[in-house]
DNA sequence: CTTCTTTGACTACAAATGTAATCATAATTT
DNA sequence: AAATTATGATTACATTTGTAGTCAAAGAAG
């Protein structure tokens, strides 16, 4: 078994919950609820529901401490992010992914270190990068493909 | 009014439909259905439903041609991709977005041109890139933040 | 003209999701 | 001990999504 099974499907709202638990490393419901009530217009029961679903999905683990639970992430944040992003991109036309990345890189705040790492990785890819990546939106090669 | 309103929320299954219409520029239901039946285990009625939902959402436009419809994309593919990707990333911890992009860049097939463009844009960002991007998972500055 | 087929319209239905109320029990406070 | 509060468990409910069946009208085929 991998230590970090990134199998669970985490919805948008659930993702908000995971973010605070990931950041805190572990937390009881009181903490999670009070933090999230500040960020959203969510009622406590809503957050409880989300926590419950995450536990059922295996994204959060519980340790009973007296009458309460301490929740801990069962999946790695970075791994979950990587997987979600890759899944999202793979669902889009391969031919346009590069441009999408360019737009995203333009709009996001990235640290100097991240920018440098990205450049390094890209430069390493350059030599073997194909001249073009074809559209993969149609079955096999149904003549028609995305325009260039 | 912007020509390309990327407001509609397109689900995963619907995205598959959009991809073929985007690629073909326009298509009648027969064409869409036969192409998608090859790529998925979808029955014709399923695809009809998806097309109908996309029309209702405003993602596809219709032109009546005799008894049939010709469907055309009402939103731009690249713009939709950019927006979806940005939305996905913005829902994640700002501190880890850079790393996620690195992983994605490593795993994706990118054309030489895309790689070059990415490098160019990144190099342009380098001078003004901040030393670090802080975690934004907790309200304001609730002392705790993601580890470095 | 009658029958088969194509195509769009309408209906169906379970699972996931967003959002929350209620309830019971354990803990705290008076 | 009684009243209050906190916490997890259970239930609720509309919407979205995935997946598909049914039906009627319009054409095509015989």
Automatic annotation (TrEMBL), chains A, B:
InterPro entries: BlaI_family (IPR005650), Cu_transp_CopY/TcrY (IPR014071), WH-like_DNA-bd_sf (IPR036388), WH_DNA-bd_sf (IPR036390)
GO molecular-function term, one example from the UniProt record: glycosyltransferase activity
Keyword Transcription in record: yes
Alphabetically ordered keywords of this record: DNA-binding, Glycosyltransferase, Transcription, Transcription regulation, Transferase
Membership in a protein family: Belongs to the BlaI transcriptional regulatory family.
This protein's name: Uracil phosphoribosyltransferase
Organism: Levilactobacillus zymae
Lineage: Bacteria, Bacillati, Bacillota, Bacilli, Lactobacillales
